[in-house]
Amino acid sequence: LREQGETFKQEVNDALAVDGPVGKETLAALIRTARDRVPRIKGIIDSKEQGRAVIVQYAAGVLRLETPPSRPGPERFLVCIGRNLDMPFTERLAALPGFSRMRGETP
Fold first, then answer.
1. Are the beta carbons of 100 and 19 closer than 8 angstroms?
2. What phi and psi values does residue 37 have, to the nearest 5 degrees?
3. Rounded alpha-carbon distances, angstroms, from residue 93 to 47, 65, 82
4. Which of 47, 6, 87 is nearest to 78 (CA)?
5. How far apart, in whole angstroms, are the C-alpha atoms of residue 20 and residue 97?
6. How many angstroms from the chain centroid is the CA of residue 101?
7. How far does CA 29 lie from the centroid of its chain?
8. Strands 99-101 and 77-83, how do they pair?
């Protein structure tokens, strides 16, 4: 139940294409930018440090990079799951080096 005057916050998914290998610092910058609105981030990126594809799992303030169980396809992406993700906010994320807005369907 909502309190009087409370606004409904809709959960939204927005996907970012990952244009090349991503370093820890760049991923940390994305999380710092997103953390107030995005409680969960998941996807597949090429890790600069590890030199291979990794699964990204971010939830409850904890970032995990995991080895995929099988060889992932060529698409690299991050899905941001959050509340009230408006266009200016997602454009700020997409402006970080190595990221862009995904066009078409979310993976």
1. yes
2. -110, -15
3. 18, 20, 13
4. 47
5. 10
6. 11
7. 11
8. unpaired
Please give the distance of CA 59 from its chain centroid, rounded to a whole number.
11
Tens of pLDDT along the chain (107 residues)? 444 544 444 556 788 899 899 998 888 888 888 877 888 999 999 999 999 999 999 998 899 999 999 988 999 999 988 877 777 777 888 888 888 888 654 44
Residues 6+ apart with CB under 8 A from 7: none
Residue 34 identity: A
User: What pLDDT sits at residue 11?
Assistant: 59
Contact 79, 14 (CB under 8 A): yes
CA distance 25 to 3: 40
Task: Please identify which residue in the block is written with the tokens 């995904």.
Answer: 102
For residue 104, the model assigns a pLDDT of 52
